[in-house]
Design brief:
single chain, alpha+beta, six-stranded mixed β-sheet, three-stranded antiparallel β-sheet
């Protein structure tokens, strides 16, 4: 960090300008926002989600990809009001420090990849965004993403080579994973080839297909590589979609999520190179030679995971609601090894609505342990889905005030509630339920002890997630412990009390609107788990200016299990206390176990103690900051004139550049103030434990709506109602068609899902199996369809699991059949024509049952027509030759032609040889039965047409000597009969 700060001081000198209006700088020419990966306007155009939703929506509520995505924050990343207000502040901060707003480009690349790749992020104030850009992280944003380290993943050196266990690849099907992965590997090489450094030199070494600089070993902070080809990339090799697709191990790799979930500020890293021009051929920027985790901390969710037991090797079993006996994954022992294991868990179902789509996992032989990934992408945000859904007329939570505030239009807020895929209230409200349940499964409070004689209280908060608790965006997000001590049913002591009227913690330092603490109340900062940033640029020991942050002031968030603290500082992920890196903040046991052991002193002789853990998506203090910075209110943190030479720091309300953003100052505050009692703005109860006897929080007057805990993990959104704590029941659903929903275990939140009775009818989604029934919880067939050959000229083939039909391919031409040989799947009788006596063939001998010659006349010494014999020439189709094969003596008769090809001087028609009427060639090889391969060439020849010009006919065009070219269709026998009839007609006319 010292180097980064020194670089910034130098950069301020470099970018300082004469006081006056700031000057925009083209983003493409700005080294401060340059990071590796695909760049804007490089030919990558993402497909709109509606194309995908044609097949991946509204087909199965349990696994409905479209509805789950629409209910996630991914789809609303560019509609999130908190983001848009934060974005506005970041643009002003960028102008303050740099003299341009280009830091905003760093926000748009992850919140609207479609708009960013298409070049609509310049200018970086969002003014050029169009319809689909408001759909946030779309289907193609992920399913066109390329693994930048594909060679190492393919070789098994990046994430292991346990193909059968870790990757769930059997390679037992017609499309084996290993073969499909090789195809993707070759496609990846094509996509990374054009990537360059800012200096214009190639970014990849094309001899190894690895990045030129080996230290660039992770592509966090939005450094994605996108395919310019529309083939969709996903995690299954055995799909049968109609669009192009590539099997991608990357899409089930832990590294994929790190692209956007480790966030760093490239401006801080590259500041010493602010004046570097593009394409100079020499300069390599710091962001191009270091992974994003190594500089300018903003978020470290992925790094936290990588430092845990779960991100190490084959992963580790979970705990609590994620324990292997209740939480299933595709890994051996139900281990958790990737972000997707928890945030896109396996379910039973299909990936789309098309018949024949495998029902995973039971319907897949290639990936038999991998269920259909749920695309709900659930985190802990309940506030944003509530706000967006409440602004849609007809929604069950419709709120006229919210609708008015959020529907001011693109020209006022750079927000559209109608363009692209508009907010779906039902999907968003379902997402709130999932997010609440996710929060309640994330932690538990254990081992509560209290000594009445000493007042000593102890308890443990266990982190059940794979990252810090809490994680993600640091600004305003917090988790806190609130403790109440009771005597005689009355609260006599409180640690970290929350004031619902002011909507913030009481006694909060630095918060002017935090109510003062009352009697028996105290504030404990160590029990407020959060990450706070600091800035030497603004002079703040705690700052909400994340774009100007130069370090962390506080980071006491609870580590995940197995957190490797010795490696944490390299990722800027170690604990920080009072602005100082503090690796010893947690003990070795706490790092190893993923918990925080808490000890403090309460008053003595309490009857009971209640320990509660709460979560807030955003705080009053942060929303106040956003309002003040956008409006330029009296509470100011930026100095004027600015380091970049501008006369005024606060310009949002006066500079036309912010015309479509300045309304966020009032809007964000009014939204929060109107919705401060909504869970997410108000604290959400995550976990609770009690020692002794405490009062019912729902017993007092006016307690309706107060968060409570009904003691069951089978309910969500527990609130007091008429003196009782009532939660919304989460319904159990059957694990699959061979399991019943069962009952929910209130201690784990898991449904029992007992197996259905053996013999219960089911479907394994394979039409090639018979009598499917449930057996011990699995759908098992009693046998398989036996394929039988259609006739003597067809093979039995294999059964198509999508239709139950056997393929019945035709036997090779020439295979023996009753009375003849197979030709294009039809049994054709063998010709037995009589040979000539060596003279000039007039009209040729009549063949036996093998077929009649087309177009009649045979040449003097030439080959007979189909069935005709020549004097001294080779027999035609079935005809016998007298005297062996002729040389080049014979000449084709005037107008005569062989039926089974062109007539040859002394030769027989070849396979697919020259045409019938009139065409002749010289020099044919000796005769062969049924127009075999001794005949003349087909190049230039046409059925029933002109002469051949040499070369051999393709085997697929071989008509067996009938004079017509067979069409490869099921009705080729009809074409054969038609051609023979035409041949007979021509023959009659030539007589």
């Amino acid at each position: 960090m010292a180097l980064v700060r020194a670089g910034f001081g130098l950069a301020l000198i470099l970018v300082a300008a004469t006081a006056g209006a700031w000057t925009p700088k083209p983003v493409a020419n700005d080294p401060l926002v340059r990071m590796p990966g695909t760049q804007p306007i490089q030919g990558v155009l993402l497909e709109a989600p509606n194309k995908c939703l044609n097949c991946h929506d509204a087909y199965d509520p349990k696994v409905n990809i479209g509805a789950h995505w629409r209910g996630s924050m991914m789809s609303q990343a560019m509609r999130d009001p908190i983001f848009l207000a934060t974005f506005t502040v970041a643009l002003q901060d960028s102008i303050w420090a740099l003299g341009n707003a280009n830091a905003g480009d760093l926000c748009l690349r992850c919140h609207t990849p479609d708009g960013w790749l298409a070049g609509r992020s310049d200018p970086p104030n969002g003014s050029l965004l169009t319809s689909g850009d408001f759909d946030g992280v779309t289907c193609d944003s992920c399913h066109r993403m390329v693994d930048p380290y594909f060679e190492q993943t393919f070789a098994g050196t990046r994430e292991g080579n346990d193909w059968l266990g870790y990757w769930d690849e059997t390679n037992l099907t017609a499309r084996p994973s290993a073969t499909e992965a090789q195809t993707t590997r070759l496609a990846d090489r094509v996509q990374v080839g054009p990537l360059t450094f800012f200096n214009g030199k190639p970014f990849y070494d094309t001899s190894s297909w690895l990045p030129v600089i080996a230290a660039w070993n992770e592509n966090g902070s939005g450094q994605f590589v996108m395919s310019a080809i529309n083939d969709k990339r996903a995690s299954f090799a055995d799909t049968n979609e109609k669009h192009g697709r590539l099997y991608s191990r990357y899409h089930k790799s832990r590294y994929m999520c790190g692209v956007c979930h480790d966030v760093s500020n490239s401006v801080m890293a590259n500041l010493a190179f602010a004046s570097t021009p593009p394409g100079n051929g020499t300069t390599v920027l710091p962001t191009e030679q270091n992974p994003a985790y190594a500089y300018a901390h903003v978020e470290r969710t992925f790094s936290e995971f990588m430092l845990s037991d779960f991100g190490n090797g084959a992963g580790a079993p979970g705990s609590g609601a994620f324990a292997p006996n209740v939480f299933k994954t595709s890994r051996p022992g139900n281990a958790i090894a990737t972000c997707q294991d928890c945030h896109m868990p396996d379910a039973v179902g299909a990936g789309c609505d098309k018949p024949g789509t495998p029902i995973r996992p039971t319907g897949s032989q290639e990936h038999p342990k991998s269920g259909q990934p749920l695309h709900d992408l659930t985190g802990g945000n309940t506030l944003m889905p509530w706000l967006l859904s409440s602004a849609v007329a007809g929604s069950s939570n419709y709120d006229a005030t919210n609708a008015t505030l959020l529907n001011q239009g693109f020209n006022v807020l750079t927000l559209s509630m109608t363009l692209g895929q508009p907010p779906d209230p039902a999907a968003l409200l379902a997402g709130i339920v999932r997010a609440t349940q996710s929060l309640q499964r994330a932690a538990s409070i254990e081992n509560v002890s209290y000594g009445a004689g000493t007042g000593a209280l102890g308890f443990r908060i266990r982190n059940h997630t794979g990252h810090k608790l809490i994680s993600g965006y640091p600004e305003g997000r917090r988790m806190f412990v609130s403790i109440r001590g009771y005597v005689g049913g009355n609260v006599v002591s409180a640690v970290n009390p929350y004031d619902a009227t002011a909507a913030t913690l009481k006694g909060l330092p630095g918060s002017p609107n935090s109510p003062p603490l009352g009697s028996g109340e105290s504030y404990a900062d160590a029990l407020v788990y959060e990450a706070k940033l600091q800035s030497t640029l603004t002079g703040e020991s705690h700052t909400f200016h994340f774009a100007l942050a130069t370090g962390r002031a506080k980071d006491n968030r609870i580590p995940p299990r197995g957190f490797r603290i010795a490696q944490a500082s390299a990722r800027l992920a170690e604990p920080v206390w009072n602005g100082v890196s503090t690796p010893s903040y947690f003990s070795a046991a706490e790092y190893g176990g993923g918990y925080d052991d808490v000890a403090l002193t309460l008053p003595q002789n309490l009857d009971g103690v209640e320990v509660s853990l709460y979560y807030q998506s955003t705080s009053r203090e942060y929303v106040e900051f956003l309002r003040n910075e956008i409006k330029g209110n009296s509470v100011k943190t930026l100095a004027s004139p600015t380091p970049s030479g501008e006369p005024q720091a606060y310009i949002v309300q006066t500079d036309p550049y912010f015309a479509k953003l300045k309304a966020w100052g009032d809007t964000i505050w009014q939204l929060w103030d109107h919705n401060k009692s909504v869970p997410g703005a108000a604290p959400i109860l995550m976990a609770q434990a009690v020692w002794g006897t405490v009062a019912n929080p729902c017993a007092g007057a006016g307690s309706n709506g107060t968060p409570c805990n009904d003691g069951s993990l089978c309910t969500t959104n527990d609130l007091c109602a008429s003196g009782v704590c009532v939660g919304t029941v989460v319904p159990c659903t059957g694990l699959d068609q061979c399991h019943l929903p069962g009952a929910c275990d209130p201690t784990t939140g898991a449904c029992s899902n007992p197996a259905k009775a053996n013999g219960t009818a089911c479907s394994d989604n394979d039409a090639c199996t018979l009598t499917d029934t449930c057996q011990s919880g699995a759908c098992v067939s009693a046998g398989n369809v036996t394929c039988v050959a259609l006739d003597q000229c067809h093979l039995a083939g294999v059964c198509d699991p999508a239709t139950g039909l056997c393929s019945n391919p035709a036997k090779p031409d020439g295979s023996a059949c009753g009375g003849g040989s197979c030709v294009a799947g039809i049994c054709v009788a063998t010709d037995a024509g009589s040979g000539g006596s060596g003279g000039t063939g007039a009209s040729g001998g009549t063949g036996a049952s093998g077929g009649t010659g087309a177009s009649g006349g045979a040449s003097s010494g030439g080959a007979a027509g189909s069935g005709g014999a020549s004097s001294g020439g080779a027999a035609g189709s079935g005809g016998a030759s007298t005297g062996g094969a002729a040389g080049s003596v014979g000449v084709a008769g005037s107008g005569g032609a062989a039926g089974g090809g062109g007539a040859s001087s002394g030769g027989a028609a070849g396979s697919g040889g020259t045409a019938g009427s009139g065409g002749a060639s010289t020099g044919g090889a000796g005769g062969a039965p049924s127009g075999g391969n001794g005949g003349t060439a087909a190049t230039g020849g046409a059925p029933d047409g002109g002469p051949s010009t040499g070369g051999q006919a393709p085997a697929s065009g071989d008509d067996g000597g009938c004079g017509c070219r067979m069409r490869p269709t099921p009705r080729s026998d009809a074409w054969l009969l038609l051609a023979m009839a035409l041949g007979l007609g021509l023959r009659r006319r030539t007589r």
